[in-house]
Amino acid sequence: MKNNILVIGGGPAGLEASAVLSRMGYNVILAEKEKRLGGHLAKWDRLFPDQTPAKEVLDGLLDGIKDVKCFTETDVNSINLLDRSFNAMLSNGITILADAVLLASGFDMFKAEKKEEYGYGIYEGVMTNADMEQAFREGKTFSPAPKAIGFVHCVGSRDEKAGNPACSKVCCATAVKQAIEAKELYPDANVYCFYMDLRMFGRHYEDLYLRAQKSGIRFIRGRVSEVSETAEGRLLIKAEDTLSSRPVKVTLDRLVLMAGMRPSEAGHKVGRQLNLSVEEDGFFSARDGFLSLQKSKLPGLFYAGACTGPKTLPDTLHEARSAAMEIDRYIKENFRK
Amino acid sequence: MIDFGFGVSPSSRINLDKADKEKFNELAIAEPDVAKCMACGSCSASCTAAAFEDTSLRRAILSLQNGLCDDASKLLSHCMLCGKCTMVCPRGINTRHLILSIQKIYSL
Ligand SMILES: Cc1cc2nc3c(=O)[nH]c(=O)nc-3n(C[C@H](O)[C@H](O)[C@H](O)COP(=O)(O)OP(=O)(O)OC[C@H]3O[C@@H](n4cnc5c(N)ncnc54)[C@H](O)[C@@H]3O)c2cc1C
Ligand code: SF4
After folding, report:
1. Its pTM surpasses 0.90
2. What is the ipTM of this complex?
3. Which end of chain A is more exposed for a tag (fewer CB within 10 A), N or C?
């Protein structure tokens, strides 16, 4: 008998885990609430650190799920644990009895309009990292060509008042990547990155930083404190250049906010039905932080990807593969005796 | 008019719109490595002159980026070109050569 495995969320984590599980011979059912598969990856243009087209990676992931039963535009209406298996009612009316569930609900973007002082949704020139990716993906250029562009790191991250003291991990590399791409598109523009510290931790990330420096991008250590509009409709930015201990101001045409990662609301909805615990940061808590990263406290329920905290794509995909192995072990130990 | 002895104190705010980018670009062409400075402070920490006078290549570069040439000039005026900073710079910048180019281009 083939065991049913339910995967909730069709982002990179859900797709990769489904592919591995289906290669192992399981009957995988994938529920994705959006119209298209791919999660946030489907919204990105090119990926840090080497500008691989996001589409290439997504196509690779989609190749792996040919034998997976995928339901898009499908949420989980209710889910509960019976004796050993999970009973899930999907929003498309289908009921599934699954021996294990993988929760791969990912993250939501921090809502940049909450940081009112940055003027997102108020001033036309202010946009988010996600908006910028969309513009790149659609090949949209700004005219007239911007003369000055700024990037603000840590928007809604490392910010207790915004409800998120943690670092979102991916936005430093995203800012540096997008700054390089903006400079390539508008070579005459002055490009500034306002950062507190640069977290270029991954392989090749530091190379990206050096490339940005060499292309003339100016890194200013200090958090933007306020944005206002000039009489000409441009953006006046105020910050402190903390390296010279002096306030600084600059007029820009575009300001790109590096909105951080917050726990997925739709993921929480599922979590509440199963009484899954979350940590202070709002992300789901794994059984332990070293040896059982993919396990929840509920037997048979597993995690992969950004639903347990900010992660890069390689991190996410590693987790997806290890979750598949953990699920395989769990099924063999509990259902095949 | 009666002079009451009050005046508007000059703003300490750096205005990047007014910073001289032409000169800095000229420097960056002559010394491309100036762009590689990551403000680690190794040069300033090892500087022999800094023990006696306010001297710092890191801050001089920053001042030039901010268009404050006078500040940069002061921060380099006591440099004896000993070259210790060249030895410690982790990004391999030829700091000694850079200082000479700064002095030439900005006619310090
Ligand atoms: C601006 C930005 C740029 C980035 N760029 C890069 C990059 O260049 N390189 C890199 O390595 N990483 C990058 N990342 C990180 C990357 O996006 C994440 O690592 C990855 O998307 C995480 O995958 P995931 O599957 O865990 O979550 P997600 O991508 O969020 O996918 C989760 C999916 O689950 C679905 N879902 C949630 N709840 C339910 C439910 N109840 N029912 C059904 N479906 C549900 C969602 O609709 C979504 O499709 C970037 C992140 C940001 C914020
Ligand atoms: S990755 Fe960088 S920009 Fe993002 S929250 Fe962390 S320090 Fe801030």
Report:
1. yes
2. 0.92
3. C
